[in-house]
């Protein structure tokens, strides 16, 4: 019965895509893009949702594989995935919005907003948190050391207390770059202190609602329902698919549930500046700097890079059974957005493959 349901569902989706978005991408490019996902475009596998954006429009979008294997529900562009560290772009953006309103000083020590945070030899600023140069130990590594399973629900209070109990930093603030989820957890807490409302409420009010991102939310309570959720999975070396259930609901370092269509709306804000204005976008793309004057590739939760001669900005995301990639080529007005629902999936590699297909065709 589930197989029949899948066939009917995918037939309807096939017709929908090919009558709407698919025709905007040449047939030979569609074929080559689909071939990138051929191994997961099955009724017995989890997979991913894809959106390709060109010149302000979605020129191709579709789902590959299954959102819910138990119920026989296929992935579509409307499927909601956990986006992992892509979440950080929204946290950094909220901090910048508050900074522009003179409500948050990015150069202030974190104790100005979190007075219970310990002091070390050198001050840690809010800006240090944004660029991962604070020296604060990553809480996932602390979880591992303490034998805590991150798939379980862990309170923010417990996590923050664990961060505060550390006797030393990994290095003096500003001396090195070292990715720290702890810094973004604290950044979300600072945003709450300054705004007077929960971080989930603030980002919804300031970004999701104005941009029309109706299917996006920061999950700060694992008990909440998420319509159209794609469940997370793990594929074993024997080819078996296992559930990878997750009750993780810490926000800041992650926490974003969204769709490729909603991320398209966010993607377009980099061009139309609906949120924050052009100065805001310029600030978002300003990279951090070490104490020795060296520039990083990491801006406000946006990595600046290059691929086959094309300037690239974006971020990846991963946790539990979810993997995600947001990749934008600003000078080409091209973006590739992939959200996947199994831990073995490598969306960054798939996005690179698609970019090479499209650039070779142009």
Task: Describe the 3D structure.
This protein is an alpha+beta fold. The protein has two domains: 1-79 and 332-362, no CATH class; 80-305, Beta-lactamase. It is built from eleven helices and 13 strands. The protein has helices at residues 2-19, 27-36, 87-100, 126-130, 139-146, 156-164, 181-195, 199-211, 260-272, 278-284, 347-361, and strands at residues 48-54, 57-64, 66-68, 73-74, 81-82, 217-218, 233-235, 241-243, 256-258, 303-307, 310-319, 322-329, 334-340. A six-stranded antiparallel sheet has the order 2-1-13-12-11-10, with helices on both faces. Helix 2 (27-36) runs antiparallel to helix 11. The longest helix is centred in the first third of the chain and has 18 residues, at 2-19. It is globular and about 60 Å long. The model is unreliable at 9-23 (pLDDT under 50).
List the helices and strands and how they pair.
Layout lengths: L1 H18 L7 H10 L11 E7 L2 E8 L1 E3 L4 E2 L6 E2 L4 H14 L25 H5 L8 H8 L9 H9 L16 H15 L3 H13 L5 E2 L14 E3 L5 E3 L12 E3 L1 H13 L5 H7 L18 E5 L2 E10 L2 E8 L4 E7 L6 H15 L1
Antiparallel strand pairs: 1-2, 1-13, 3-4, 5-9, 6-9, 7-8, 10-11, 11-12, 12-13
Helix pairs in contact: 2-11, 3-7
């Amino acid at each position: 019965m589930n197989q029949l349901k899948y066939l009917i569902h995918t037939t309807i989706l096939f017709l929908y895509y090919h009558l709407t978005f698919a025709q905007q991408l040449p047939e030979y490019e569609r074929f080559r893009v689909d071939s990138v996902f051929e191994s997961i475009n099955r009724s017995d596998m989890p997979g991913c949702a894809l959106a390709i954006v060109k010149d302000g429009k979605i020129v191709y979008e579709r789902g590959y594989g299954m959102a819910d294997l138990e119920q026989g529900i296929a992935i579509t562009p409307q499927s909601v995935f956990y986006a992992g560290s892509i979440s950080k772009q929204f946290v950094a953006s909220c901090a910048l919005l508050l900074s522009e309103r003179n409500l948050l000083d990015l150069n202030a020590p974190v104790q100005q907003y979190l007075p219970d945070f310990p002091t070390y030899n050198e001050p840690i600023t809010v800006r240090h948190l944004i660029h991962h140069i604070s020296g604060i130990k990553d809480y996932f590594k602390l979880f591992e050391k303490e034998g805590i399973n991150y798939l379980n629900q862990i309170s923010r209070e417990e996590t923050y207390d664990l961060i505060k109990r550390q006797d030393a930093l990994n290095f003096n603030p500003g001396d090195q770059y070292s990715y720290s989820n702890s810094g973004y957890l604290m950044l979300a807490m600072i945003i709450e202190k300054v705004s007077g409302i929960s971080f989930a409420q603030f980002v919804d009010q300031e970004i999701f609602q104005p941009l029309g991102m109706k299917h996006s939310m920061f999950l700060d309570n694992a008990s909440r329902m998420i319509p159209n959720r794609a469940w997370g999975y793990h594929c074993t070396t024997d080819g078996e698919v296992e559930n990878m259930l997750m009750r993780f609901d810490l926000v800041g370092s992650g926490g974003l549930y969204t769709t490729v269509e909603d991320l398209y709306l966010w993607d377009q804000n980099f061009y139309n500046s609906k949120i924050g204005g052009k100065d805001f976008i310029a600030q978002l793309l300003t990279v951090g700097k070490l104490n020795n004057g060296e520039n990083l590739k990491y801006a406000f939760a946006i990595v600046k890079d290059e691929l086959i001669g094309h300037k690239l900005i974006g971020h990846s995301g991963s946790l539990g059974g979810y993997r995600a990639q947001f990749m934008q080529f600003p000078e080409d007005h091209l973006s590739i957005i992939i959200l996947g629902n199994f831990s073995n999936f490598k969306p960054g590699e798939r996005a690179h493959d698609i970019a090479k297909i499209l650039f070779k065709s142009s």
